[in-house]
Write a structure and sequence with these properties.
Layout: E1 10-15, H1 29-46, H2 51-56, E2 59-70, E3 79-89, E4 93-102, E5 108-120, E6 125-126, H3 131-144
Length: about 160
């Protein structure tokens, strides 16, 4: 964990790999979640609860809920930018919102709203995060709280009927 400036937003870059494609010739839905997972690591590592923390064996984060929203197709070789912001947190929970953008053309490809729960490896039950992580999350929250809220944050999934439907 570092004491430096807090990124607004946290950013990572990835490239769509050939094995991420499906029979439609575009990036398969499962790899969008994988891209969000990989792209969010910079945020979790900065907060002291990334994969290095997990490897230490005391605790980890489990995804407990997610909402993915797809807008544009992505193809082999496309460079991606994953942006992560903190929406909220408690000592046991983290709520993030991530945006997946085409790094070269800048278009919005997808978003992910995710709720994570911190789990202790000893009994595999929810447990408070280490105090250093909580302190960093509090600092990140103070900065990210001022960001505009994403349009589809907390969206409800439904079929909206009109007279034309």
């Amino acid at each position: 964990m570092r004491d430096s400036a807090i990124p607004v937003p946290y950013e990572s870059t990835l490239t769509v790999k050939s094995d991420w494609l499906d029979a439609n010739g575009h990036m398969n839905v499962a790899y969008y979640l994988s891209a969000f997972d990989d792209g969010g690591e910079v945020f979790f590592r900065d907060c002291g609860i990334g994969w290095d923390y997990t490897a230490e064996g005391q605790g980890t984060l489990f995804m407990s809920s997610s909402d993915l929203d797809f807008k544009r197709e992505l193809f082999r070789g496309d460079r991606l930018r994953v942006e992560t912001i903190l929406i909220d947190w408690t000592p046991k929970l983290i709520h993030t919102f991530q945006t997946l953008l085409h790094a070269d053309d800048g278009f919005f490809a997808a978003s992910a709203e995710i709720l994570f729960v911190h789990v202790a490896f000893g009994d595999r039950k929810s447990a408070p995060m280490p105090s250093a992580a909580q302190s960093r999350l509090a600092a990140v929250e103070r900065v990210h709280r001022g960001l505009p809220r994403p349009k589809n944050l907390g969206r409800k999934i439904e079929i909206t009927r009109t007279t034309e439907s």
